[in-house]
């Protein structure tokens, strides 16, 4: 039996069960849940980096967004609050749409 030891989506046990598989799971405590969200986020970002087409990129971005949604309650925050912070930062420093790549800054 393969050993995964990683965070999975909530319905994965039912998917495994329906296919006749046997499995074991446990529910993570909040601190370890956040650690595993961070680990999974890293994994999904790596997978996003490896995408070569629109559909795969959107699938990985959806996974990243789902992990962000999962992390918010652990920080006692809402998506609306996160969006407000995102907008405030964008208004102050801009977004990333223009693709500006900083090469160097000359010392004075």
Protein model, in words:
With 108 residues, the chain is an all-alpha fold. The chain has a domain at 28-91. 58% of the residues lie in helices and 0% in strands. The chain has four helices and no strands. Helix 2 (30-49) runs antiparallel to helix 3 (54-74). The N and C termini lie far apart (61 Å).
Write the SSE topology.
Blueprint: H1 12-18, H2 30-49, H3 54-74, H4 79-93
Helix pairs in contact: 2-3
Q: Which keywords apply here?
A:
Putative house-cleaning noncanonical NTP pyrophosphatase (MazG superfamily), mainly alpha, 4 helices, MSMEG_1276-like_NTP-PPase_dom, 58% helix
Q: Helix count, per DSSP?
A: 4
Number of strands: 0
Molecular shape: elongated
> How far is the first residue's CA from the last residue's CA?
61 Å
Unreliable spans: none
* Residue share in helix: 55-70%
Topology pattern, helix = H, strand = E: HHHH
Rg is: 18 Å
Question: Beta-sheet strand percentage?
Answer: under 5%
What integer is the average pLDDT? 96
Protein name: Putative house-cleaning noncanonical NTP pyrophosphatase (MazG superfamily)
Quick recap:
With 108 residues, the protein is mainly alpha-helical. 58% of the residues lie in helices and 0% in strands.
């Amino acid at each position: 039996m393969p050993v995964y030891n990683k965070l999975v989506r909530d319905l994965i046990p039912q998917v495994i069960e329906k296919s006749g598989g046997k499995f074991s799971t446990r529910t993570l405590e909040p601190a370890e849940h956040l650690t595993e969200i961070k680990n999974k986020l890293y994994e999904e970002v790596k997978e996003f980096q490896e995408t070569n087409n629109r559909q795969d990129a959107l699938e990985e971005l959806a996974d990243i967004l789902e992990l962000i949604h999962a992390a918010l309650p652990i920080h006692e925050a809402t998506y609306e609050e996160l969006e407000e912070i995102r907008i405030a930062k964008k208004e102050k420093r801009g977004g990333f749409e223009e693709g500006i790549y900083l090469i160097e800054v000359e010392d004075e």
